Amino acid sequence: MTVNDAVATRISKLLQEKDMSQYRLEQESGIQHGSMQCIMNGRNKTVTLSTVMMLARGFNMSLTEFLDDEIFRSEDLEIEQ
């Protein structure tokens, strides 16, 4: 699993937990629809730290809270260089 896949999985999980639509997340985070679609559909190969920070703000949580998930601690997580 790539970092982008992990971020997309985390977004899906939080959208469900918070009963939030992707559209609302886009509005709250300031991330454009096309960019969000690229993340969610795996077309984006790398997600920047600033994008992850925007996502965390969109969910009204800290960056640490967003990243505090087992998916980011997996030994199988592929970190691209």
CATH fold-level name: 434 Repressor (Amino-terminal Domain)
**CATH-defined superfamily:** lambda repressor-like DNA-binding domains
- What general form does the structure show? globular
The quaternary organization reads as: single chain
Overall pLDDT confidence: 93
The total tally of domains equals 1
Secondary-structure element order, as H and E? Answer: HHHHH
Main sheet characteristics: none
Quote the distance from N terminus to C terminus. 14 Å
CATH hierarchy: architecture: Orthogonal Bundle
Total E-strand runs? 0
SS content category:
mainly alpha
Low-confidence stretches: none
CATH top level assignment: Mainly Alpha
Q: What's the alpha carbon Rg, rounded to whole Å?
A: 12 Å
Percentage of residues in DSSP E strands: under 5%
Explain this structure to me?
The chain is mainly alpha-helical and 81 residues long. The chain has one domain (3-69): 434 Repressor (Amino-terminal Domain), CATH 1.10.260.40. Helix content is 57%, strand content 0%. It contains five helices and no strands. The chain has helices at residues 3-17, 22-29, 33-40, 49-58, 63-67. α2 (22-29) crosses α4.
